[in-house]
Amino acid sequence: MYKSFLIKYAEIAIKGKNRYLFEDALVSQINHALKKVDGSFHVRKEQGRIYVDTDGEYDYDETIEALKCVFGIVGICPVILVEDEGFDKLCEDVIAHIKQEYPDKHFTFKVDARRARKNYPLESMEINAKVGERILDAFPETRVDVHHPEVMIHIEIRSQINIYSRIIPGPGGMPVGTNGKAMLLLSGGIDSPVAGYMIAKRGVTIDATYFHAPPYTSERAKQKVVDLAKIVAKYAGPINLHVVNFTDIQLYIYEQCPHEELTIIMRRYMMKLAEHFAKENKCLGLITGESIGQVASQTMQSLAATNEVCTMPVYRPLIGFDKQEIVEVSEKIDAYETSILPYEDCCTIFVAKHPVTKPSLNVIHNDEKKLSEKIDALMQEAIDTVEVIHIEA
Ligand code: ATP
Ligand code: MG
Whose CA is nearest to atom 8 of ligand 1? Predict the structure, then answer.
């Protein structure tokens, strides 16, 4: 059982003077992710490295699963940390590691030593050669392959010596909390949870808004969005989900405006309301799951029409993705099974048979005038009655 994990991070290492901010954010995200794991952990920064030390029993698989959700981590290395008690002892430790970790010794290997502490008596190349020999003596079934080894044995000589040979891939990206906050328009579909995941991966904290239209959309549809928010929160950290009661606005648009424009006008009001909550919560942008041409409301003209009502930047990370590519990410983050549950969201209930695909802004502006009598009051009502649900994974 490993007592420590060495955490590898790449992108954040190049941030110059800001580097410590990124490392601190990563440490805090790791701490947060490990809170729900069985065991007691201590996360520490040391000489451009982050270590997770364990104290006593812990659940290995749960620990790895939790770390795999922390943006900023490139690799998770279960590591053996030993004091420098001479070269013979180091070789014994390496051999003990191989013995335990690889029951079948028929593999090729290479030793990759790094001497970060320059007063160590052997140079890296000498360590590679000598440790390699000892391994071959101990396990004659193994072979050296310096070009494509199946097992790479890393030995890093630091204040303690680090021995590791497994690097479990992390999710990459940047630690959440390093790039401000944005408001995700989260529906019950496949796309928006993926969009939230992708922006969170760039270090952005996420809040979310869901437009609910009871009784046209069911409690189960709302629960599905809560469940999806939980899945996104596994990566993005806690999310404040704003559930907006959209029924009256939707019905009013339905009564007053041509039905083929319904979706566009409705989406314009969604953007306006989302932006209201975004500003209230110090968000710096909106996020949607839109992708060019996917449906009538996502043609370039339609996107221009929905975009027009926003003063904040709207981030659409899926804009150039095909559906299949979106589905792949959705499956990777375990959202797909939830997203395809049948409960409908409000977009699917009031759709026209032949929605406009090339809305003209003039026409939309004119038709929206038909809403002037009540729309402000209805918007205010929607704002006043919002339900905020704090979501944690
Ligand atoms: P998704 O799979 O994310 O629902 P979609 O392909 O169904 O997307 P639309 O229904 O046109 O596309 O919605 C486009 C985007 O608008 C969504 O990705 C989401 O960001 C936002 N959106 C749509 N409906 C809602 C809703 N009821 N609540 C919040 N946001 C919504
Ligand atoms: Mg949808």
Answer: 191
